[in-house]
Amino acid sequence: MRSHGGRGGLDDLAAFACVAEAGSFTQAAARLAMSTSNLSHTIRRLEARLGYRLLQRNSRSVSITEEGRTLLAALRPALDGIDEALESLEHGREQVLGTLRLTMTRQAYEAIVRPILPEFGRRYPEATIEVLIDYAYRDIVAEQFDGGIRLGEKLERDMIALRVGPDLSMAIVAAPSYLDQHPPILQPEDLIQHRCINYRMLSAGTIYAWEFERDGKAFEVGVSGPLTFNEPELMLGAAIDGLGIGNLLEHEVAAYVESGKLIRILADWTPPFPGFHFYHPSKQQMRPVLVAFLDLIRRRK
Where does the HTH lysR-type domain lie (predicted)? Predict the structure, then answer.
């Protein structure tokens, strides 16, 4: 039977059970990896605390008292349960199983997580991944998430961060049908006169102000228009339908720009910025399922 360290009274009770079942202080001390004198002191301390003699001992033998038998009968199922729980934890330390809880945006899921799910499922059939799609910045410690994926420039400083994707760029796009019917757009300020598709940031309760940068100068343009969404996919659809000008991640619109369904404008004003990062609270005692998940992401990069 193993020793249950760091539990005070539980240590003493486990030591008593070991001596009672071994019938010998010497044998019990060897099992518990402690000296015979320390073990004898532990039993005396337990007896003093309980107010009962639990063991009768002389120079050659140890026997259990009636009170000791009563206590041992109650202890054994509890100690067995503790042993089973500890063995289960040790087994789980080496096994990729359990639920991995993650928070991320839909774009991060599509770009980073979705591509590795088939291989993860094949390798680790006993593991479960739970993904919460959210655009707010959650307290992953308080809400018991294992980690999350967000843009690198938005991460909290006390998080451990792993870059999991390349730099990204925003792309200002519109359908040819829209551009054919409206004045040309030569600089960001021209957008003020156009019908733009806005994005509402639910976590901040505000409308996103479009960000631009050129020659080291960064600035924002507050645009307006007939449509506002909180999902980039809906913004993309509205831009393709010719309902206004969209501001989306470059990789989200690339296929539509290549096919001619959308035209990119103001590309010189939207430089790259830090892309997706996986973040989690600590490098210490990382769960095997998290280690396995991050390993697949690293291999994909």
Answer: 10-65
